[in-house]
Amino acid sequence: MSPILYIVIPCYNEEEVLPLTSGMFLEELELLTGSGRISADSRILFVDDGSRDRTWQIISGLARKDHRFTGIRQSRNRGHQNAVLAGLMEAKDRADITISIDCDGQDDIHAMEAMVDAWYDGCEIVYGVRSRREKDSFFKRTTARSYYRLLKSMGVEVVYDHADYRLVSSRVLQEFEGFREVNLFLRGMFPLVGFRSTSVPYERQERLAGRSHYSLSRMLGLAFDGITSLSIAPIRLITGIGLTVSMISFIGIIWAIVVFILGRTVPGWASMTCIFCFIGGIQLISLGVLGEYIGKIYMETKARPRYIISDRTGQERERNGRRDRSEDALPPPVPELKKRPENHG
C-alpha cells in the first residue's frame, strides 16, 4: 500500500510567489501519485505564519478549488522554524511521510522523487543537501560554510549545506514530539532523534518572485540559536579563556613584584590601559554569552506554546454547515394566536 505524503510548506507574505509555485507542487504531487509512489490521499499543506498580505486568502482559494490543497494559519508571526514545526505536527497523525520545503521555488521540487525512493529503501529521514553554492554571493557562501564548520567544532550534529528541505517519516515525528524546546533549530534537532538517514543532492535555483524574508539579522539570530540551543561549548570556551587570562595575570603579578624588588619600576600608562581594556572586553563578552544562555533558560521555563493555529481551510464551510443544521433542527415557529374577543355580557 502506497504511503500518504504531506508536503509541508511554510509561508510568510508570499502572495507574489504562491500562485506560481502552488501549481508546481501540485504537478509534482500528481507525478508521485501517478507513479504509484504515494497514495492518492496525499496532500499539500500550507502553513501561513501570520502573513500581512493576501497569502491566507490565496491558500483558502486553492483549498476551495482542489481538495489536495489544505492549509493552517498561525495566530501571529512566530518565525520560520515554528511554522515548519506546526505543519509537521498537524500532519503527524495523517501522513506516513512528510516533506518540508519553502514556497519560494528555490529548492528543487523534483528531488522529492529521490527522497521518497530513499524512504522505500528504509531511511526514516532524508535530507535535501545543496550540491553547490555558485549562485550565492561570495559573502553568503563564505559565511555559510564557516558557520557549518563552527557548529561541527562545537559538537553540534548538523548535515552540511542542509536547510529545512527534508523528508521525515511519521515514526520519527512521533518521537520528535517529545522534544519540547521553545528555541528551535530543526536542522540540528532532527539528527538527535536518530534512525536511519541519508541525503539527496540538488541544485538551488533563484527565487521565482517576491523577495526573501530572511534578513541578515534573522539569519544571525538563527545562527546563534543553533549554537546556544544545541551546544554548551561557548560556556566551556569562556572557562578556558578565563583560566588562560588568570594564568597570564598571575605571571604578570609575579613579574611586577620581581621588578619592584629590583627597583626597576617605570610608570606605564599605556600598558596598564591595554591590560584593563583587554580584561574588560573579555568580561563583557563572557557576560553576553552567559546572558544568552540564561535568556534561553528563562524562555524554556515559561513553557509557552510554540505555535497557535487560529484557522484551518474548510473551517468556514464547517461553521456554515453546522449553522444550517442547527437551524434545521429548530422547532417550527408557534403560530400567533388570535386574540379572544371579550365578552361584555
Describe the structure in brief.
With 345 residues, this protein is α/β, with parallel strands linked by helices. It is 51% helix and 14% strand.
- Going by CATH, the homologous superfamily of one domain would be Spore Coat Polysaccharide Biosynthesis Protein SpsA, Chain A
On the 0 to 100 scale, the average pLDDT is 78
Taken from the alpha-carbon principal axes, the silhouette is elongated
Low-confidence stretches: 334-345
Strand order of the largest sheet: 7-5-6-4-1-2-3-8
Indicate the structural class. Answer: alpha/beta
Q: Give the CATH level 1 class of one domain.
A: Alpha Beta
What does this protein structure show overall?
- The chain is an alpha/beta fold and 345 residues long.
- It has a domain at 5-230: Spore Coat Polysaccharide Biosynthesis Protein SpsA, Chain A.
- It has helices at residues 18-34, 55-65, 80-91, 111-120, 138-153, 170-176, 186-193, 216-230, 233-262, 269-302, 315-329; strands at residues 5-11, 43-48, 69-74, 97-100, 125-130, 162-169, 197-202, 309-312.
- Strands 7-5-6-4-1-2-3-8 form an eight-stranded mixed beta sheet, sandwiched between helices.
- Helix 9 runs antiparallel to helix 10 (269-302).
- The radius of gyration is 29 Å and the shape is elongated.
- 29% of the residues are buried.
Spell out the blueprint of helices and strands.
Elements: E1 5-11, H1 18-34, E2 43-48, H2 55-65, E3 69-74, H3 80-91, E4 97-100, H4 111-120, E5 125-130, H5 138-153, E6 162-169, H6 170-176, H7 186-193, E7 197-202, H8 216-230, H9 233-262, H10 269-302, E8 309-312, H11 315-329
Parallel strand pairs: 1-2, 1-4, 2-3, 5-7
Antiparallel strand pairs: 3-8, 4-6, 5-6
Helix pairs in contact: 9-10
